[in-house]
Design brief:
Layout: H1 3-15, H2 18-25, H3 29-43, E1 48-51, E2 55-58, H4 60-88, E3 92-98, H5 100-117, E4 121-127, H6 130-138, E5 144-148, E6 156-169, E7 190-193, H7 197-206, E8 214-218, H8 221-229, E9 234-238, E10 249-265, H9 274-284
Parallel strand pairs: 3-4, 3-5, 7-8, 7-9
Antiparallel strand pairs: 1-2, 5-10, 6-9, 6-10
């Protein structure tokens, strides 16, 4: 059994066709057949059922082999990577993406930690919107992203919850409200930050059968605060998204508190290198953003 055979096996599973697999792998169809036959001979089982009417179908034992084949390839690639780094004496660079309120607080602490404990690993990060982070993770431009997560993000690791608050002008009727309920903001013109940041807030209210009256969706927190200051509505923002407020604005918390989930997202199509796994593990040790 060889790594090449396993690569070919997984590609045939994916394409459900020997010819298509051979075209993608840029090898001949007989070479694909030979590799699968050799793997079946080594394992002593049939991995595929070849039916003229139904086409190519993976067997029950074939399906059970798939996750092991993926893991063996992942380990093989990790070994290749480590050996290459050693032979070339190069530092391992991990590429991370996150949105500004996360990276400005989180990344300096993480980079300092790695410089001290793992000097051979370098961390490189870029900032972006929620949509941009997911795009970078999907196309493989970064190893993982730190962002808002939802139930749809299957390849994700939960880190912590970030409080969402109301920002209103000083003197607004909400000023005296120490027990702000979610339904109380429904009649207000709501200002949200876009580029994916708005989705978690909208969904949180919809889960309580509440629909926000959204007046403006803006590009930045600075713009949102300016609109609030100008009397054009109230904003619902992350408490960590701004360092201070002018005297003309105030923060009001929800009761019970409203949160959004922050976590790590990564691609299921790209095996995580050992160094990346280590980095994710270290990030998990930071339980609170502000610690």
């Amino acid at each position: 059994m060889t790594i090449t055979q396993l690569y070919i096996f997984l590609k045939v599973v994916e394409e459900k066709n020997f010819t298509k697999a051979s075209e993608i792998l840029h090898i001949s169809q007989p070479a694909v057949s030979h590799a699968i036959s050799g793997l079946e001979k080594t394992l002593g089982v049939s991995l595929f059922i070849r039916d003229k009417k139904k086409g190519l179908e993976i067997t029950e034992i074939g399906r059970k082999v798939v996750p092991y084949a993926k893991e063996l390839i992942r380990q093989y690639e990790s070994i290749e990577h480590e050996v290459k780094l050693f032979s070339e004496n190069k530092a391992d660079v991990i590429h991370i993406s996150g949105f500004p309120s996360i990276t400005s607080v989180y990344m300096p602490k993480l980079i300092s930690h790695f410089k001290e404990h793992y000097p051979s690993i370098q961390l490189s990060f870029t900032e972006g919107s929620v949509n941009k982070i997911k795009e970078l993770v999907t196309d493989g431009s970064v190893d993982f992203g730190i962002t808002i997560t939802t139930e749809e993000d299957h390849q994700s690791i939960f880190l912590f919850e970030e409080e969402m608050v109301v920002v209103a002008p000083t003197g607004h009727p909400f000023e005296q409200n120490v027990n702000m309920k979610m339904e109380e903001v429904i009649g207000e013109q709501i200002i949200l930050c876009g580029h994916g940041f708005e989705k978690s807030t909208i969904e949180a209210f919809r889960q309580h059968h509440l629909e926000l009256n959204i007046g403006h969706i803006v590009d930045s927190v600075t713009t949102a605060l300016s609109l609030v200051k100008g009397g054009l509505g109230i904003a619902i923002l992350s408490r960590n998204s701004f360092e201070y407020l002018p005297d003309t604005l105030q923060i009001i918390s929800f009761t019970p508190k409203l949160h959004r989930k922050i976590g790590i997202i990564y691609s299921k199509e790209k095996p995580l290198r050992r160094s990346v796994q280590l980095c994710i593990k270290e990030i998990g040790k930071f339980n609170q953003l502000s610690e």
